[in-house]
Design a protein that fits this description.
Layout (H helix, E strand, L loop, with lengths): L6 E4 L4 E4 L2 H8 L5 E2 L18 H10 L4 H5 L2 H16 L6 H6 L1 H11 L6 H12 L7 H31 L5 H7 L1 E2 L2 E2 L2 H32 L1 H9 L4 H11 L5 E6 L3 E3 L2 E3 L4 E5 H4 L34 H18 L28
Helix pairs in contact: 4-6, 4-14, 6-7, 6-10, 7-8, 7-10, 8-10, 10-11, 10-12, 10-14, 12-14
This protein binds protoporphyrin IX containing FE.
Length: about 375
């Protein structure tokens, strides 16, 4: 596709697909030509689907909570939770990584950041999982059931956050919800709906993606003993392992935009108002950008993958996702002498064209 039809229109899906690094990069860095305002269910009304100037102002508000420094302050908590989760399975010597570590870790940390009381965490996880659960099969009924469940999940969480918002209005704390409630844009406070959308966005954008990053990285280590050995014997290589896992198995495979005017991409003319899908998974393996793109290696000096996007919408949670993955991998490698897939188990992919991950990873 990259060679023969790097930019193509798909009649069946009524959208353009873009496969080359250079073109994907061009689209993501040009929000004046390519808008993020698109209908996408639970994420509507969040910064992910906003254009400047509103996007810039909203993003500036929350940037502080996610700076590398702010995230570094969470390191102890991430280590503590990782050790606690692994303690539950250490003696057994086997586990499903998704269930035991990669799933719960990001949810617990985001709950901490938002200020969700510890007693509600299980409930919180159940409903945030519903928001990202895929359909059971490809039938229409399965998709409708999924959509209905997501709607219920989103409504439940909004109701739940409404209660917390009421509490924080009276007794502000040091958490993100209190920060959002106190913030003003052009002298005006955010509406309750905006604060709620932001809370739900953090759950949807940050949980399953980080779960898949951790799972994909560990999965790769079980498939390539050499890489596991290199990381195990040289733990400072772990950040490189995380970056390469992001490039090689991107948790989000593609990013969508809508053209704001007639544009040219890769020699093709695209009319105003068309959907454009930027295939990050393909861009990350573009031979024009990466040497030996289909080789997983810890030797890359630079790794400018696009798995967190690029430009003004660059993933807000990237420092947090990176830190969680680094702590998880470091702790796994230091706790267990060997990480090995359970023989004979077939891995089941998460059924979505835009998400890359497996439902379970028995180790
Ligand atoms: C945006 C990927 C983790 C919050 C994005 C975008 C990508 C992405 C590709 C850009 C979307 C676009 O340009 O339209 C990922 C991946 C993650 C991850 C692969 C894990 C490995 C997180 C976490 C959080 C988070 C942990 C928060 C706790 C956000 C937010 C945005 C975003 C709020 C919207 C930023 C904006 O529109 O300005 N993410 N993400 N993400 N991500 Fe992440």
């Amino acid at each position: 596709l990259r060679q023969n039809t790097p930019v193509r229109y798909d009649e069946a899906r009524s959208c353009w697909d873009v496969f080359r690094y250079e073109d994907v990069h061009y689209i993501l860095k040009n929000p004046k030509l390519f808008s993020s305002e698109r209908g996408s269910g639970t994420l509507q009304g969040s910064i992910l689907t906003m254009d400047p100037p509103r996007h810039t102002k909203m993003r500036n508000l929350v940037n502080k909570a996610f700076t590398p420094k702010a995230v570094k302050d969470l390191k102890n908590k991430i280590e503590e939770v990782t050790l606690y989760l692994l303690d539950q399975v250490k003696e057994k010597g086997t586990m499903d990584l998704v269930h035991s570590l990669a799933g719960p870790l990001p949810v617990i940390i985001i709950a901490e950041l938002l200020g969700v009381p510890a007693k509600d965490r299980d409930l919180f996880k159940t409903y945030s999982d519903v928001l990202v659960a895929g359909a059971k099969d490809n039938s229409n009924e399965a998709f409708q059931r999924m959509a209905q469940k997501r709607k219920e999940g989103s409504e439940f969480l909004k109701e739940y956050f409404k209660k917390i918002i009421l509490e924080r209005k009276v007794n502000p704390e040091e958490d993100l919800i209190s920060l959002l409630l106190a913030a003003k844009i052009d002298g005006e406070k955010l509406t309750e709906e905006e604060v709620l959308s932001f809370c739900v966005l953090l759950l949807v954008a940050g949980n399953e993606t980080t779960t898949n990053l951790i799972t994909n990285a560990v999965r790769y280590m079980t498939e390539d003993k050499n890489i596991q050995e290199q990381a195990r014997t040289n733990l400072p290589l772990i950040p490189k392992l995380v970056e390469e896992a992001l490039r090689f198995y991107p948790p989000i495979q593609a990013i969508g935009r809508v053209t704001k005017e007639q544009v040219k991409v890769g020699g093709k003319t695209i009319q105003k108002g068309e959907q454009v899908i930027c295939w990050v998974a393909s861009a990350n393996r573009d031979e024009q950008k990466f040497t030996e793109p289909n080789r997983f290696t810890l030797e890359r000096k630079l790794n400018p993958h696009l798995s967190f996007g690029f430009g003004i919408h660059f993933c807000l949670g990237a420092p947090l996702a990176r830190l969680e993955a680094e702590v998880a991998l470091l702790t796994l490698l230091s706790t267990f002498a060997k990480l090995e897939g359970v023989k004979g188990t077939e891995l089941e992919a998460i059924p979505s064209p835009f998400v890359f991950g497996v439902k379970r990873l028995p180790l």
